Amino acid sequence: MDIRQLEYFVQAARLNSFSRAAESLYITQPTISKMIRNLETELGADLFYREGKSIRLTDAGELLLVKAQNIVESFASLSSELDSLRNLKRGHIRIGLPPMVGASFFPAVIGEFHRKYPEVTIRLHEDGAKKVEDDVESGLLDIGAIVLPVDQTRFHSFTFVEEKLELLVPAGHRLDGARQVPLKELAEEEFVLFREDFALHDRIISECVKAGFQPKVVYESSQWDLISRMVAAGMGIALLPETICRDIDRSQVTVIPLTEPVIPWQLGMIWRKDRYLSFAAREWIAFAMNVLGERYPPPEHPQDI
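The structure corresponding to this sequence follows.
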């Protein structure tokens, strides 16, 4: 048994698929199938039920997964620590960014970081904030930008944006020209929302329910510019962050302050409390704190990052 066998097994168990695991590990499916079959032979037990193209863990597989995850994570931590010692500021960082956050806040920051640390590579993963949080939790990502709040028992975090949501209506809408609009006034409107894997999806629905109504959702998207165009086309209304609203073409839509309640939009960077961070990831956090979070001072003790 070697660490590669355990890594392949853990990834197959996470994805419930040999083919998807092989793709994520950049190897062929026959390779991962053979490695896991060898592992089963060595252990004298089947680890997966094979049902056509799908797989699921046997009892022996469930038992091994608990142990294997700890071994793989410990080995990854050891490798990262040794790599940091050997290579100093060289390294690799996996960062998760929701699409609208990445486009609005990070190109310049990443460019400056690359100029300062040209030998550090950054792999960006674009997903909704909920998926980013899950991937930081599981270890697939080192760091993520999400919509706060977050579970402070599991994650370190710092805030870099505090804004509120604003109302977007098509030109000529009954609310066009209003100075401000209370949320309950939107009870009969049709909403264009972000998809379910975006934190704003649940936040907006929750606030509407608190205001006394269930929003009528007619369209969902992962792209803020498409949402604004749907509003301009008269498909419905939308609630978007101030930063996004500043970039919207106002010729066909109107942006109106939302009140009663004001819905906050707070962005932060998160990373796991109980997982080793490479030197490169620590450098990124300190750099991002300085560039993005000037209003939020870094920890007094950088070693606590």
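The chain has a mean pLDDT of 87.
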